[in-house]
UniProtKB/TrEMBL annotation:
It comes from Candidatus Pelethenecus faecipullorum. It catalyses: phosphoenolpyruvate + UDP-N-acetyl-alpha-D-glucosamine = UDP-N-acetyl-3-O-(1-carboxyvinyl)-alpha-D-glucosamine + phosphate. GO terms for biological process: cell division; cell wall organization; peptidoglycan biosynthetic process; regulation of cell shape. Pathway: Cell wall biogenesis; peptidoglycan biosynthesis. It comes from the Bacteria. GO terms for cellular component: cytoplasm. Belongs to the EPSP synthase family. MurA subfamily. The keyword Cell division applies. Its EC number is 2.5.1.7. The keyword Phosphoprotein does not apply. Pfam families: EPSP_synthase (PF00275). Its main location: cytoplasm. This is UDP-N-acetylglucosamine 1-carboxyvinyltransferase. It is found in: Cytoplasm.
C-alpha cells in the first residue's frame, strides 16, 4: 500500500493549471468508437482511469496514440470482443462501452464495472433503458451479457430516475435505432460535452430540457478534433486548497460551470476573486456553509467532502447533506479524529468550526476522500500519514507534484515489494 506523509501548515503559493475533465474524458474516449474516421482529443487528463480505458481500446485493436494531453484514436480495425479485460472491472466508466457496443454490435459481454466505493451504485437504470430499446440482459457472477431481443424503430425511452451515467449510456445504445426520444435524462456539463462531440462526428441529436431527440442518418467519413472541457472538481479542489493554506491562482477554471459553489464561498466571506478563466483563492476564514448535494446546477456530490474540510476549520456552524450517494461520508470520522467538532446522523453532518486540526494517520477509501484527506493534512499541525493516497491518481493529474511545487512538504512512501514475492 502506498502512503504519504504530509508535514502540515506550510504556506502554499503559486499558479496551478487545471486539466481536462475526468468525467467528460471517460465517456468521450468510449464514444470515439462510434466515429467513422479518426478522432483527436485535446486536453485529455493524464490520470489512471484514462490509462485503463486506453488499454481497453488497444486490446480491441484500435490504434491509439497518447502524447502529452493529445489522444488520437483510430477505430478502423475495431472488432467485437468480449470485454473481459481486468481494466473493465477497475474503473466505473467502462460501463459506457456497453451502450457503444450495443449500437455497434447489438451485443455486449463485459465484466461488471468497478470504481469508487461510494455506495451500492447499481446499474438498473442503464439496464432498464437498454431493455426499452430492445436489448435483453443477464448477469452471471461478475459478468454481464446483453443481446438484441427485438427490433425497435421508433421508440420513447423514459429513464426511471435521474442518472448521469444511465442518460449517456441510453444515448450511446440508441444510435442504431431509427428514431428515439429519451425522457427524464440528466446531462451535467460533462455529458453536454459528450453530446457536442457526438454531433461533431455526425449524429443527429437535439436536446430540449431533459429530453433528447435522436434521428438516424448515415455517417460520412470525417476527421474530428475535440477539446475536452476543463475539470470543475479539480478546479474547486485547488480553490479550497488556497482558502485553507495560502495564496493560489488557478488557471483554466470553468467558472460558468461552478456558479453555485463559488457563490456559496463568496457569500460566506471567503477571499476568492475570479475573472475570465482565472480564480484567485487566498487563505481566509468564512462562515459555515450549509448545503445539500444535488444534480447540476445544484451542489456537486464530488465536492461535498472537500467543503466538509473547509467547514471543519471555518467560523461557526453548518449542516451538510449528501443526497446522491449513500456512502460518501468517510472524511467526517477522520476530521473527528483530527479534533473537528462533528456529528454525523445518517446522510447529514453537523459541523462547528475549530481553530486548528491535529495530524492523524488515516486511509483513503475513494478518489474524493483521498483529495479531502490531503487537504486536511495540508492544514493540520504535525505529520499526517495517508495510506492508499494514490487513489487520487484516478482523477487528478500530478496532484502531489503540483502541491509540492506550491510549497507543501510531502513525502511519498512507496510500498516496497520484496524481490522474491512471485517465487
Ligand atoms: N443509480 C441507480 N441506478 C443506476 C444508476 C445510478 O440507482 O442504474 C443511483 C446511484 O447509485 C446514485 C444516483 O443514482 O445514488 C446517481 O448516480 P449517477 O448515475 O447520476 O452517477 P454516476 O454516473 O454513477 C457520475 C460520475 C460521478 C459523479 C456522479 C454525479 C462518472 C464516471 N462518475 O457517476 O463521479 O459523482 O456522476 O455527478 O462520470 C467522481 O468523479 O468522484 C465520481 C464519483
Amino acid at each position: 500500500m502506498n502512503s504519504i506523509k504530509i508535514h502540515g501548515n506550510q504556506p502554499l503559493k503559486g499558479v496551478v493549471q487545471v486539466h481536462g475533465s475526468k468525467n467528460a474524458a471517460i465517456p468521450l474516449v468510449c464514444a470515439s468508437l462510434l466515429a467513422k474516421g479518426k478522432v483527436l482529443f485535446r486536453n485529455v487528463p493524464r490520470i489512471s482511469d484514462i490509462d485503463d480505458l486506453v488499454a481497453i481500446l488497444r486490446k480491441l485493436d484500435c490504434n491509439v496514440r497518447f502524447k502529452g494531453h493529445l489522444l488520437m484514436i483510430d477505430n478502423t480495425n475495431l472488432k467485437y470482443k468480449p470485454l473481459l479485460f481486468e481494466e473493465c472491472s477497475k474503473i466505473r466508466g467502462s460501463y459506457y462501452l456497453i451502450g457503444v457496443f450495443l449500437t455497434l454490435f447489438s451485443k455486449c459481454e463485459i465484466l461488471l464495472p468497478g470504481g469508487c466505493k461510494i455506495g451500492k451504485r447499481p446499474i438498473d437504470l442503464h439496464l432498464d433503458a437498454f431493455e426499452q430499446l430492445g436489448f435483453e440482459s443477464k448477469t452471471e457472477g461478475n459478468k454481464l451479457f446483453l443481446v438484441k431481443k427485438k427490433e425497435v424503430t421508433d421508440v420513447v425511452v423514459r429513464l426511471k430516475n435521474k442518472s448521469v451515467g444511465a442518460s449517456l449510456n441510453a444515448l450511446f445504445s440508441c444510435l442504431a435505432t431509427d428514431q428515439v426520444i429519451l425522457e427524464n435524462t440528466l446531462f451535467e456539463p460533462e455529458g453536454k460535452d459528450v453530446i457536442v462531440f457526438l454531433k461533431q462526428i455526425g449524429y443527429c441529436i437535439d436536446v430540449e430540457e431533459d429530453r433528447i431527440y435522436y434521428k438516424k442518418k448515415s455517417l460520412d467519413f470525417r476527421f474530428v478534433k475535440h477539446a475536452i472541457i476543463f475539470d470543475r472538481m479539480e478546479t474547486m479542489t485547488y480553490v479550497i486548497m488556497g482558502l485553507l493554506c495560502g495564496n493560489l491562482t488557478i488557471q483554466n477554471a470553468p467558472i460558468a460551470d461552478l456558479q453555485y459553489p463559488l457563490e456559496l464561498l463568496l457569500q460566506s466571506g471567503y477571499q476568492i476573486s475570479f475573472t475570465g478563466t482565472v480564480i484567485k483563492a487566498k487563505k481566509s476564514k468564512g462562515k459555515g456553509i450549509c448545503l445539500k448535494t444535488a444534480p447540476y446546477p445544484g451542489f456537486p456530490t464530488d465536492l461535498q467532502a472537500l467543503f466538509g474540510v473547509l467547514n471543519a476549520v471555518g467560523e461557526g456552524e453548518s449542516v451538510m447533506e449528501e443526497c446522491i450517494f449513500e456512502n460518501r461520508m468517510h472524511i467526517y470520522s477522520d476530521l473527528l479524529k483530527a479534533g473537528a467538532s462533528i456529528r454525523v446522523e445518517g446522510n447529514k453532518v453537523y459541523l462547528k468550526g475549530v481553530n486548528q486540526l491535529a495530524a492523524i494517520s488515516c486511509q483513503a477509501c475513494d478518489l474524493r476522500h483521498a483529495a479531502a484527506l490531503i487537504l486536511m493534512g495540508l492544514c493540520s499541525t504535525g505529520t499526517t500519514v495517508i495510506e492508499q493516497y494514490d487513489l487520487i491518481e484516478r482523477g487528478y493529474e500530478d496532484f502531489i507534484r503540483k502541491t509540492i511545487a506550491m510549497g507543501a512538504e510531502i513525502e511519498v512512501l512507496l510500498n516496497q515489494v520484496p524481490n522474491n514475492v512471485n517465487g
